[in-house]
Amino acid sequence: MEWDSEVDVIIAGGGGGGLIAALTCAQAGLEIALFEKTKHLLGNTAASAGMIPACSTGFQRQLGIDDSVEKMTADILMKNHNESDPALVRALATVSGEMVEWINDSLQIEMSVVLEFKYPGHSALRMHAPPSRSGLELMKKLKRNVNRLENIYLLLQSSLEKLIQDDNGHVIGIEVSSSEGTQYIKGKKVVIATNGFGGNKELVKQHIPEIAVAAYFGYEANTGEGMEAGIAAGAATKSLTAYQGHAGINENTGLLVTWGTIMMGGFYINRLGERFANETQGYSEFTCEVLKQPEQYGYIIYDERIHRNLLPIEDYKRLAEMEAYKTAETVEALAQEIQVDVERLSFTFMNYRHQQDGQADAFGRKVFDENLEAPFYAIKVIPALFHTQGGLLINQHAQVLDTNGCVIPNVYAVGGSAVGISGNHAFGYLSSNGLLTALGFGRIAGLHIVESLTEEKRRAIL
Ligand SMILES: Cc1cc2nc3c(=O)[nH]c(=O)nc-3n(C[C@H](O)[C@H](O)[C@H](O)COP(=O)(O)OP(=O)(O)OC[C@H]3O[C@@H](n4cnc5c(N)ncnc54)[C@H](O)[C@@H]3O)c2cc1C
Question: CA geometry: angle at 362 spanning 336 and 431, to 5°?
Fold first, then answer.
C-alpha cells in the first residue's frame, strides 16, 4: 500500500480526549498527526462546564477535603448499579488526580476545586475546573498547548474513515477523507477520540429509542464514524444504550441551566405547575421524567440567594445577562409571569417549603438546602440528549478489544467513542463521567503509548 505520510501516533478527533492524548504523547517527543473533522477544535468538550472529577489532588488536600480512589470508584459504581467494568472505573479514578495536577502544572491551565455546590452522587467535593467553569476555556487553553508543540501536526476538516490493518489484524494506519480526497496515513499507534453517535439520529433511534425524541444538544459532527471504523476492524462494542441526558436546557437561549439551581434548593415543575419526581436523582435520568410530562418541558423554580451564588458560572452569567428567567416578589405573581395555574403552583410551593433537609418527600427527595425566599425566579427548560456513553470495548489501558476480549494491537479508544463508565442506562451517569472518560482515557492511552513505544525502541536496539 502507498502511504501519503507516516507518524508515530495518529489521533482522530480534536476534542478534549484527543487533545489530552496528543499532548501526553507529544511531551514525550513522539510525532503526532491529529485529524479533526470540523474547522475547529471544540467538540462537546467546549460545550461542557469543564468540570473534571478527580480525587486525592493537592487542591483538595489544601482545602482539607478527604477523598480517595476507593471513594471515587465506589461513587461511580453505585450510580451505575455496578453495571460498568470496575477495572475501567478504578483506572480512571487512579489517574484523575495526577491528570488534573498535570493539566495545572505542566499545561498551565489553572484548575481549582468547585466549591459552589456538590453534584449529586459525589461523596466529596472533587470537581476541578478552570476559573470560568467552562469547557470553552479548557479547550482554548488545550489548543494553545497544541499550537506550541512542533511535533503535533494538526489537520482540520479531515475525517477518519477506516482503520487499516495488516494481515495479522494489527492496526497500521488510517484512511482519512478531506477536501483533498482520500489519504492513507501510517502510524505506529492510533487513538480514536471521535466521541459517540449522538449526532446520528438513525443510530440513536436504533440503540436508544427512549431519547430519540429529545433535542440533541451536543456537537453535530459526533456521528459515530470512529465507532463504526472500530467495528469494521473487528472491535466489540458495549453499553450502546447508555447516554447522558440533561433536563435543564433553556429553550430560548440554548444555554445550560446548571443543576446547581436544584442542588442549592430549587425545584422543577411541569407546565401544569406540579412537581413530578425527585430532582436530585441526577439530571441525566431526570430527562426521562420530563419526557413523560405534558408537552415535555418545565420550569426550574429558585430564588435570589441561588441566583447570586450561581453568577460566577459562565453559562449562568450569560443567562442572567440575557434575563432568560422571570422573577417576581410572590409565587402567585411568578405563576402569572410564566402562565402556569396560580393555585397549583402556590400549592406545589407550599408543600415543597414544608420539606426538611434529610427527610424524604413523596418523590424520595431528601436534599432541600435552605428555604426559598423572595424574590423568586423561574426559568423555562427542556430535556436534551448530550452525548452517548457506550462504544468500543476497551481495557484499563484504553486499548480496543475484539469480540473475544483480545486486544486489537495498536488501537485505542477514549471518551465518547469507547464504552463508558455509566452502565447501560441514563441513570448510570454520575456527573462528569463524560469529561472523566474523555480526558482520563486520553491521558491513560497517551501514557500507555509512550511506554509501549519506548519499550519497542529499547527492544529494537538490543
Ligand atoms: C452542553 C454539554 C455540557 C456538558 N457538561 C459536562 C460537564 O460539565 N462535565 C462532564 O464531564 N461532561 C460534560 N459533558 C459531556 C462532555 O462534554 C463529553 O463527554 C466530553 O467532552 C467528550 O469528549 P470527547 O473528546 O470524547 O469528544 P468531543 O469533545 O465531542 O470531541 C470529539 C471530536 O471528534 C471530532 N470527530 C467526530 N467524528 C470524527 C471523524 N470521523 N474524524 C475526525 N474527527 C471526528 C468532532 O468534530 C469533535 O471535535 C457535557 C456535554 C454537553 C453537550
Answer: 85
Q: CB within 6 Å of ligand 1 — which residues? A: 12-18, 35-38, 42-45, 47-49, 51, 159-160, 193-195, 217-219, 221-222, 225-226, 256, 386-387, 415-416, 432, 434-436, 438
Chain centroid to CA 378:
26
Using the structure block, give the residue that is written with the C-alpha cell 419526557: 291
Cα–Cα distance, 185 to 34 (Å, whole number): 11
Q: Are 124 and 70 in contact (CB under 8 A)?
A: no
CATH 3.50.50.60 domain extents, the chain: 5-242+389-461
pLDDT of residue 461: 76
Judge contact between 158 and 36, C-beta under 8 A: yes
Instruction: Note the pLDDT tens digit of each residue in 395-431.
Output: 999 999 999 999 999 999 999 999 999 999 988 999 8
d(CA 134, CA 114): 12
Fold of 5-242+389-461: FAD/NAD(P)-binding domain (3.50.50)
- CATH code that applies to domain 248-385: 3.90.700.10
The one-letter amino acid code at 213 reads V
Among the atoms of ligand 1, which is closest to the Cα of residue 161?
41
